[in-house]
Amino acid sequence: MSSSSNPLSESPKSPNPSVSKPNTPERPPAPSPDEMEVKSVSSQPEAKENQAASSPAQVARQQPIPPPSEPRQYRAIGVVRGQYAPCAEQITRGALMTSSDGTPVDAVLLGRVMSLVKNHVDLQQSHLWVVYPRTGQHDGNLHVQIVGVWEPETLSEEYKQQDETVADGEKDSPESEPLPVSSTEVNDNYFSIRGEVIYYAQDREYAVVKIKQAPRKNDDRPKFFKLKLTGKLPGKAVGHFWEFHVQREGNDLVIQESHNMGALPIKRRFNKKPYGQSRYGGGFKRGGRSSAPISKGPRTYSDSPKSPSKPKPKPIKPSQK
Questions:
Q1: What pTM was estimated for this model as a whole?
Q2: Which parts of this chain are annotated as the region Disordered (predicted)?
Q3: Which domain holds residue 137?
Q4: What are the tens digits of pLDDT across the range 235-268?
């Protein structure tokens, strides 16, 4: 097949290029090279349809940490393998004994994972936990919020049946959902952090990242929290949106890779007071009142100082005769 030939330009334009021309008496029984090229081109749309069968929602369900849905999506999520040891008083609080280095990490169970832990998870075994990281404001130590368990090979019978079907040699249809990544193939202690760097100490090599949370239905005000990350950042860091690939080392989150996504717009603040003026300006308080004290009654002014008043003489009683 020569590189200069273009089978699409040489073949007649038709809605289905794979349909061959009707046989004529002059046509030899063997197909020509050009017709074979047209047939090979007709198989490309089928391959595209198979590739498009995996929607973004399906791709997100294949791995514990889905790809970001927006270029500047705030998030903080990770995976830690270990054994969860709940407190004696309540199951929602405890410690996560990590399998890689044995470091105990303070952990809490969120409501969405409570039924899963009680009914389907053996707490005597180690599992791959999907967690939200948090760092202390004073000590900077790591503690996590457990939101899920990633074990599709043991927790989902549906994926087991799909795995057996593919293993028997049957062709997977385009409509079937791809199998998720096994827990053994996931990078343990990996965290995906995306947010705004609000502080960076170059000498001490750590940064503070501000991460906004999506507002709830009843509360329109966005909330945020801060994470402490250990590592170096190139160039100007503060006020920029960053994407971090982080690895847990003990109770620290260490930056492995960072990407500067650009500067964030500066928000104007209207509550700053100019020097020598009050918030509402002009030396007046709200409502038009003057800040000077108001005296009661008329005031008189005199250029000369007032002389001290002399005491009045007492009246003399008339003498009795």
A1: 0.61
A2: 1-72, 160-185, 266-321
A3: 72-149+189-263
A4: 899 999 999 999 999 999 999 999 999 999 987 7
